[in-house]
Amino acid sequence: MWKVVAADDEGYIREALKKLINWEKMNCDLVSVLEDGQELIQCIENESPDIVITDIQMPGVNGLEVCKYLYETRPETQIIILTAYSDFDYAKFAIKYNACEYVLKISIMDELPEALEKATGKLTQLKKEIEKEEAAVSEQRTLLQQIDQYVEQNFKNKISLDEIADELHVNRSYLSRFYKKKTGINLFDTILNLRIEAAKEYLLNTDMKTYEISEAIGVDDAGYFSKMFKKITGVSPKEFRKQGKDEKNY
């Protein structure tokens, strides 16, 4: 079954998604229904769903940011946008981020099953394409080595999935799925871990400021770097550097 997660800040929509849609009939498993975009992104990172249903207008992280995140890091994931308004701007937005469909909340009972059918159809087609490409790649281990080598050499630059795929002459969606299937880890999680390890070396062995280290490892936003550093290591960059100095003095 295809794994689905959803987010909407309106309670009646969340209840409709949970109770009024026959997910099993559509070969789908609704894993979680959340209230905002931040929770949704966290759930996506933990669950790696096949389909994401997101409201546009939500407090904090909105649906536009969720779609941008998925487009940049998990392009194979199918996105269904929920909106209260029939607006051409949303259609343009859906096209920009390769959203599968957008659904009017007022017609959710009629339009969502159709959107899900379209999404599962695309997933099935993508799965067939991946299987076909896999059959054509006689030495997949070589491809994985090429990915690792490219990432190792370029993770300190601001690299994108498109750049890696172009360099290795493979489809971007295939590349993302292939790497996850072979390693069990999302490609950009690997890149982030390499960046954090490099940041540790800078913190312990140089006097570079946090924003300078962030730039040196390919992260433009120093605030985001500090947040991710603490998420992975449990301490802030400043605390990590202090702990290192204390250990040396000891």
Write the layout of secondary structure elements.
Layout (H helix, E strand, L loop, with lengths): L1 E6 L3 H9 L8 E7 L2 H11 L3 E5 L7 H11 L4 E6 L4 H9 L4 E4 L3 H29 L3 H15 L6 H8 L3 H12 L3 H19 L4 H7 L5 H12 L3 H13 L1
Structure description:
- There is one protein chain.
- With 250 residues, the chain is α/β, with parallel strands linked by helices.
- It has 12 helices and 5 strands.
- It has helices at residues 11-19, 37-47, 63-73, 88-96, 108-136, 140-154, 161-168, 172-183, 187-205, 210-216, 222-233, 237-249, and strands spanning 2-7, 28-34, 51-55, 78-83, 101-104.
- It has a 5-stranded parallel beta sheet, with helices on both faces.
- The longest helix has 29 residues, at 108-136.
- The mean pLDDT is 88.
Summary tags:
single chain; 250 residues; 5 strands; 12 helices; globular; alpha/beta
Outline:
The protein has 250 residues and is of the alpha/beta class. It contains twelve helices and five strands.
How many distinct beta strands?
Answer: 5
- Which descriptor suits the 3D outline? globular
Largest sheet, if any? 5 strands, parallel
Rg, please? Answer: 20 Å
SS-derived structural category: alpha/beta
Strand order, sheet with most strands? 2-1-3-4-5
- Global mean pLDDT: 88
- Span between termini: 55 Å
Helix content: 55-70%
Succession of helices and strands = EHEHEHEHEHHHHHHHH
Tally of helical segments: 12
